[in-house]
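Chapter summary example.
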Amino acid sequence: MDILLLERLVPEALAWLEARHAVECRPELAADPSALRKAAYKAQAVVLPRKIVVTKEFLDFAPMLKAVARMHVGTDNTDLEACRERQVRVIQATTANVRSNAEYLLASLLLLYRRGIGSSLIGDRHADIRLGRELNGSVVGIFGLAPTAHALALMLHALGAKLIGYDPAVHHTAPIWSRLQIQPVSLQEMMARADAVSVQVMYASRYHGFINDKMLAHCKPGQIWVGISRSHLFDPDALAKALIDGRIEACMLDGAEAGFATKGTPLHELNNLFLTPRLGSHTRESRLRASWYVAHRIHETLAAPRAAISQLDQLSSAPMGLDLPSGGGHTPQFIIR
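The structure predicted for these 337 residues follows.
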């Protein structure tokens, strides 16, 4: 066995990889740590789901390993230093989900602006007619300039929204603001002016609880919030108070961590907080992009001498996208952007 898959690739990418390497698909191993260690012993590459954590101990059971691949973004479940020491390349489809996450945020904004649609979608054909709002002419706060914000900005401009933004890691004079046609403002001004706020901050531990009472005190009453960032960014008590007193009319977040709004927490009973289970990255198209990216990078790694893995790892961390040619059977072309 060369490659162990605990997360399936699309059939075309899997077939391409199987034509070049010995591949085993064993998604059931994600629930059996002991069996996973045994299976990983002879693997040169593994494709793992989010819940599998790569530690030094995991690497001890995989002495032949050259690559750890993920279909998603985020390294909090991977000991990067341990991988670097063992010359194990960490592969992530970093831009495969940018478009799908942007469309998720847009769809969330539209649904919360027109919440009557949601009532019909859950089967209530006789719900009261609710007065909706339009994105055209609305002021949308772009909180965080993660790659998803770049795609979202284009969509919102096309719908006639006015964009203002803030990112704690990007100076207001940075050229990226003008390229995206987003007016950079202070955090307090964004909160005071925005009709809606989209959160796609690149999370770091120093931002834990960043969205707190002090920040939410400046909310324009009746704001709509949507987000794909980690829920650790929010102070749950502060968010609950803002949802209860009307500063935030409704909030939709994707992929909140376990315990964020469970029974006994201040957010549990709120009917204007909507949580989805990481739906933003789950589209057929993003799956196709991620599968081909992972397949090509794994093949590239296994074909390279061990000493070259660190250089390949630097390449895979660069901002990359991929464009699929029109012919379905052709190999996708990867283009550095």
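To summarize the output: The chain has two domains: 3-96+284-336, 99-276.
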